[in-house]
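[step 3/7] fold_predict: job queued, chain A
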Amino acid sequence: MTEKRSIVIFGLAFTSSWGNGHATTYRGLIRGLAERGHDVLFLERDRPWYAQNRDLPESRHARVHVYSSIAAMKRRFERAVREADLVIVGSYVPDGIHIGEWVTRIARGATAFYDIDTPVTLAKLERGDADYISARLIPRFHLYLSFTGGPVLRHIEEQYGARMARPFFCSVDPDTHYSEQCGLKWDLGYMGTYSPDRQPALERMMLEPARISNAARMVVAGAQYPQDPNWPPNVRRISHLPPAEHRRFYCSQRFTLNLTRKEMRQAGYSPSVRLFEAAACGTAILSDEWPGLDTFFNPGSEILITRSARETLKWLNELPESRRAAIGANARARVLREHTALHRAAELESYISEALRTKRATPQRSLLRPAVRVLKSAQQARG
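[step 4/7] structure written:
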């Protein structure tokens, strides 16, 4: 029987999915943890743009609290943080460095930094402009949970002194994402918040094909896109789509497009939550190419690669419908075998046990060594 754990999570967002992918990730993980019997407290800093767009202000699976100030949060939840089996501080948490220092100082259980933006975080650390994590803080956490797997995990341990860097990918809830017959409205769709480094790929793999084939029906859902009068008229834009509408969105498409941010693509091994959501809905996926993609889906049988407008149009116009449907079904089966919220909850259980064993076996004075190594590396880089 699974040992029940008390877990405190400081995350960017749970109550609002507007303009971020963090909320969906935390919601799925928390549901998985609750279903496996764990007690979860989620703490979120109040922000006006989330307050105006809260699509899940409460949860049946965890206690969720939105705090207005760090001082008020500490007064109310210091005991919970101190006594929890695991305390997680996520990436992009406001005042994350201050919170991380406080958590790693007072928590009696294991502590973890959950990096939902690993390649972006590492680039910020290299530039020296990270405001939610620091090189000095990383070795103080017992566990570094990374959205990115592969070689970057060893880099985090060797370069930054992380005690345990482990892959912790996003997941999907199969109870909310599944294949549904709701009529195909779009030939190709894309969901994602506007990002300048993704926009050229969107232009190349969707907007240009839409201009070439003006009979094709396409749709882009996501916040923060600038007004552009040159978008093709056969591409519909949706400014925000709450999670409750994601399934119908994907099930209304023949194909969906997956695009990866520059840092994630370069690091590889960084699947997005949208990738797993679309697959769980049985929608055939056209994806950009990045290292490690084939460890999540088999190209050709579970996912299709597109690098240009020409390739996008080839898949849209030449792939037999029977094969398109089979690719979507194969991707769904793969996700259900490996990437549900329950899979992630079970993985976290094993990481907690490993971190607690390591914590008990590691003398306190030896924890200074990784920090010294990080400081020396930083000094050498400056020199």
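[step 5/7] annotate
Residues 6-171+342-382 form a domain with the Rossmann fold fold (CATH 3.40.50.2000).
The longest strand covers residues 39-45.
exit 0
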